[in-house]
Design a protein that fits this description.
The protein has 149 residues and is of the alpha/beta class. Helices cover 40% and strands 21% of the residues.
Length: 149
């Protein structure tokens, strides 16, 4: 599904959040600055907006963006190339079976991942596993309100 909607994903996020998702991502990127020195992982990077926000906030850090949708990664890679951003790598990976060693990242973050996991506990365990001791895990998500407007 995500590969199918990749070209419209950024527009859909803007419509669903009233354009607030940009500010929310900037806030998440700001919170990563308190993590110890080391690489940052943007899990379920999608079209790489959060990874790009982190690189803008912390230009010296290496940022990896991982997503299982190759279509989303293609859009993200085009953004990275267009902005000539260094030290940012996007790769295909499953959030519930990450290809990284234990403690590989000083900070692991995600935007709009948790609501899409079919195994929430497994996804959170993987985030914890690849986060270094003393590191930080930051998530941003939205849910459907219990009471309709």
């Amino acid at each position: 599904m995500f590969t199918r909607i990749a070209r419209r994903y950024d527009l859909m996020n803007s419509l669903m959040t009233g354009g607030r998702h940009h500010a929310w991502r900037r806030k998440v990127a700001e919170s990563s600055a308190g993590a110890p020195a080391g690489p940052v992982l943007d899990l379920a990077t999608g079209t790489a907006d959060l990874a790009l926000a982190v690189r803008a906030r912390m230009p010296g850090r290496f940022v990896a963006g991982a997503d299982f949708s190759e279509g989303m990664l293609q859009i993200g890679r085009a953004k990275v190339r267009a902005r000539r951003v260094a030290r940012l790598q996007l790769l295909a990976a499953d959030a519930q079976a990450l290809p990284f060693r234990d403690g590989a990242f000083a900070c692991v973050m995600s935007a709009f991942l948790l609501r899409n996991l079919d195994g929430l506990e497994r996804g959170l365990a993987e985030m914890r596993r690849v986060t270094a001791r003393g590191g930080r895990v930051v998530t941003l998500d939205i849910v459907r309100p219990g009471q309709p407007l």
